[in-house]
Fold this sequence. Notes:
- Helices cover 43% and strands 20% of the residues.
- By secondary structure, it is of the alpha/beta class.
Amino acid sequence: MKSRTKLALSFVIALALCILISSTGLAHERRDGGYFTIVDEAGSTVYETGRNIRVGDQFLTEQNKRYEVITIEGDTAKAKLIGTVNLSLYLPKEDSFFVKLLRPRIAAAAEEGGKVAIYHTHSDESYVPTDGSESKLGAGGIYKVGAAFAEGLKKNGLTPVLSDAKHDPHDDMAYERSRRTALQLVKNDQPAAVFDVHRDAVPPNVYSGTIDGEQISKVQLVVGKYGPTGKQIEDYAMKIKATSDQKHPGLVKGIFFAKGGDYNQDLHPRSMLIEVGAHTNDRESAEKGVAKFSDVMPAVLGNTAATPSNPNGPTGAGTTASGASGSTKSIGWILAALVGGAALFLILSTGSMKEAGSKAKQFFTTEFANFLGPLRRKKDKRDDDSDKK
């Protein structure tokens, strides 16, 4: 009997650990130099990324169409259309007359001196046409892109806090190392927003664009859906793209929603991973693109937009209607595993389904009732005292 009890307990613990481990995203980017082409159900290319995608990942295109990955074969993934998201619903609502009078002062107070933290998890990332290599340990061209972002924020009245911390090598533990940097920035500087600046790994045409007559590299936003703030960060990303679409249409290439990632976004409600161009783009175009992106931030941080309750689209894409965040789902799976494990424990420890059912019934009718008894008696006594008064 003791051996069966130990076996059952070991199984429950192992099952819970397996679910926890399998829920987290381990490989964030491809390591083989390839990239994924994502096609719709008609076979037309709708997205390209160097991120290591999984079935269940979602993405929002430049045209604000939201898709979900349903199959992956080699370097090609197929996605189904969820719906078109009305990003205007993520913009601030029309102000009242009195708020309009106060708006310039409110915005100035929000924008003046507001701190924005910038760091680089992958400190080696570089741009081949300019830097001569896609990777330079501890000295990647990505630092200069981060500096251009900081300079743009400064010109827009914000206060950049730029970290030059190194997190090499470029492996899946880099996010664990950069977490210490992000924590330090959040704790010491209390920024209004935090950005982890990266670059992608796809052909140059994927990010190349022209904004205001200038050749630039576009920006992609990346949201980790696994962490506890997955839904909040998603809404924040939608707001950034909505604002960018107004200020610089076409600048934000899209938003990638990684089902199994969190990217340290649980540390701050306005934490965002951005990818500026790809290793095949020249760094100068990435610097120009991120400078344009900095123009968007005062409006994002200075205004408060209500979270939309029902954007256009058959499934309410981008809202609570699209489902619980990754952490909520994981908690549900863990609870289900523990309940299942407890049932298995009863079966193994008693030796039969019938005996296990009898034990469970005894617990809920006797032991649980005995536990609630004193509480019920206290409540009845309080009710009697109240009636006497």
